[in-house]
Amino acid sequence: MPTIPRLRCWVLAALFLPLAALADGGTATTPDTTDNADAAGGAPPVPSAPAATNGASGADASQTWNLHEQFTDVTQFHPRFASPYQGPNSLTPGGSDKTTNDITLYAGLHLWRGAAVYANPEIDQGFGLSNTVGVAGFPSGEAYKVGASNPYYQLQRLFLRQVIAIGSHGTTSAVSDDLNQLAGTQADDNVTITLGKLSVVDIFDNNRYAHDPRNDFLNWSIIDSGAFDYAANAWGYTDGGAVEWNQGRWTLRGGVFALSSQPNGTKIDTTFHQFEWVSELEERHQIAGHPGKIRFLVYDNRGRFGAYDAALAYAALIGAIPSTATVRRFGSKPGGAINAEQEITSDLGAFLRVSASNGQQEAYDFTEIDKSLATGLSLQGARWNRANDTAGFALVVNGLSHAAQQYFAAGGMGIVIGDGRLNYGTERIAETYYAYQAWEHVTVTGDYQLVVNPAYNRDRGPLSIFGLRLHAEY
After folding, report:
1. What is the count of structural domains for the chain?
2. CATH code (residue 185)
3. Beta strands in 188-324 (DSSP E)
4. I need a labelling partner for 462 at 20 to 30 A (CA). Which of 72, 160, 182, 285 fits?
5. Residue 303's domain spans which residues?
6. The pTM is what?
7. pLDDT 10s digits, 338-356
8. Are 409 and 195 in contact (CB under 8 A)?
9. Could you tell me where the beta strands, DSSP code E, fall in 135-259?
């Protein structure tokens, strides 16, 4: 019975979540700020993503260790939709519902001045809709590309972070006790070095309003830049390192990360023969007293990729269905993104993401999106006396390059899409959610997504996807 393993995960959550609530990590109070942050709206020390950015450990930690935990359960359902045909990577046209759940432990340990190590063991279970295929902008960021009926264990993150202050007379800010973050103080101007196993998007492509599928939007191409084919295994994590230079209103980041051994693989290339370099420039500002940020990101993947044109030519030569696996050669796949966030009022914020890749090679570790435009709004519930609730609305349009269109029209398969043929149209998705804080540490979210031309196919859909998310965090 499928309900039995799901109950096991819920029982584990009931047993272990209270333990994190009781752990205070020594001194868990946040120290006073010794000086104000820069007037331009410097990088906030409290992260919006599970792994903190911009110097999570703090230059002076008041905690020697901390312990947090989260549990998230996401159920999604779609009714029957129009589907005159389907292929191996098509979303199942009949009505379907799937559930994923995970329990994550966030353990941090202070090592020396400015340095801490963090570990995130996790228990996962469940499947995304149609086993996480059928939509390029997949509807659940909580659905990994590896599903399982029974709970299983993964060490998702294990990394060292070192913060080095720049100059001896700069301002400092308080850093709160949080996920992958020890309480303390931190120099506003600093160099932050992160090494180990983590997710590339823990550090890059962050956004205050759309980046955390456990708390805000769920869709892949809304929480991340759709055409950012970031290095990752099938769970979204990899080995590598990044250096961040934080000074005044600017941050410059750069990193090198291992690609997976094979596209969408469960193992990463620990030899770094296949790798990604990524760089991001972040500018912080204020408009009429409201903070905002804009980030400019470029990346280049270096590995064995199959070019769409080469796959089509080889398939025509041998009389077969094209496959990028038959023509993989070592090469380069570059791309970039612009990512902006802006507070409009104290309770309303907006975001915008624009991204593109060269579109000539197969998607390797993320999803088949060669160009993407996403925008949306996030509104806190203070106006209706629910200050800890959040409502969000977003639109995204995803597209394929001409070479990719021809490849999928000829029956080619990708990481998450492939209907066997293709009547091309841009994939258009609208998502809205309401996150209701039921108790101090528990949030219940209702989510709705409308997908037009799933997997870029005008012959299929549109479809509605209804979601319910339960999230507990201590």
Report:
1. 1
2. 2.40.160.180
3. 190-198, 238-247, 250-258, 275-287, 290-306
4. 72
5. 3-473
6. 0.89
7. 999 999 999 999 999 999 9
8. no
9. 148-165, 172-175, 184-187, 190-198, 238-247, 250-258
